[in-house]
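User: Quick one: structure for sequence A, then sequence B.

Assistant: Sequence A:
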Amino acid sequence: MVLKRWPILLTLALFATCSPERPDEEFFAPVGAGIPVVDATMVVGKPFPDVYVTETLAPNQPFSYEAAGVQGAMVSIAGGGMTVPYFSTLPPGHYVPAGGDVLPETTYRLNVTLPDGRVVRATTTTPGPLRVRDWVLLDSNGQNVVQTLRTFDEFPTDEDTVYTLPENQLIFGVGLLEVRLENDPAEGYLVGLQSLDLDSELLVDTSFLDEEDIDNFTRQNSSPPFAATQTYLRAPWFAIYYEGRYKVRVFKMDRNWYDLARTDPVMGAGGFGFGGEAGDNTVPPLFHVEGGVGLFGSMASDSIGFYVNAP
């Protein structure tokens, strides 16, 4: 779930600067090109993330890291009593850390100095660890626990074991999968779901659908970002299309990621990317970046695996 979707976002940001009263040919003028873009998401308990530094391109210029990547920048992240320098690698604009792990409830500051002297800064305060008390399957009424799923933490040397256990076998459409959280305040949460068996069979009746609709069935889905006002979350069946192994991830979001996700028209609807038709949103997403746009965010996460069987 690390966000690497800036090519489309850059086009969206540029279209947002265009007035609908301007002539058609001006929609592809290089307005807004050259704006610095940063992209990095810190994960609590994991190594420092890679940082991508690019610049916006004109809307009529196809995105590539060769065209947009910024080489020769000075990049560092400071916080938790240490400063981690970054080093340039391929593709252009890709910077890797010298080392270090991300601490919970810690303020980190990203500093990027471009070769021409421009400076981009951003700050994130990492959330505390995500604490899941139980992953359970409820009956169809949502009242009683039918089974409690086993977790990856129970099998640290062989996570695939969870997919074979009776407790982690689900039948498509039967019961409600519920994630029970500790009472843990956060800016927001997001749930991501991934089908791992790329050749598994569809479980959805497609007899009334055309090919284009069937092509829209994806193996990755995401909820919209939401503020957790309760201590449980539920994963809906309508986000599951295929038989086989699934991994569900729950993300506890920092303010930067939460604000960007909820103000972007596609992410806010539960989509996986940025962008849309030109002119369908003239308000750019909310960036917490000084001297540029993009995301320097952080999160904590936990996950569960299960197997979905056909009815």
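Sequence B:
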Amino acid sequence: MGISGDTPSTIATTTSPFVPTSSIPEEPTALPSVTPLPTIQPSPTPAVVIIPATVGPTGYEQRWRSQQQQRMVFTPPQLYEARTQAMLLWFDPATNQVVEIGTLQGVFPAQAQFTFLPTQAPALEVPYRINGDFGLTSISDALQERMHAAGYAQSVEAFIVLSDTIVPKQ
């Protein structure tokens, strides 16, 4: 029998059963023990109540006063003189903004002195009749609307930041 002959060659094959290389234990091994987690009881959560802020004229007055520290009321009001132009300001309690009404120069009444908290500046509270005092008789319609929206129809408590050019009237 040859490899290149006319007769087919036969190759003997043998089969053997699969034998694993490691042995399988007869009894399963125990799994690691699992400790159960403690049961957590939810604590009662307090109810959240949201109350919308509704601020009327009384609230606006309180907001304005909350911007003042060491307020000293003058009884009766005192006269001061602005020797140069000074800005007459108004605190809009609806928006927490300081708005310039205009400038004034000369003698004006002050009804209180205080420290304006946002700037820590000493200031004088000045009564201002809307469109009627200090030659400021044509303030903008938008500013008038803001004053009215904050509950001020006839007058507002304006203020002037003190400087060395604002002095008590002698």
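The radius of gyration is 45 Å. Residues 39 and 45 are 18 Å apart (CA to CA).

User: Thanks, that's what I needed.
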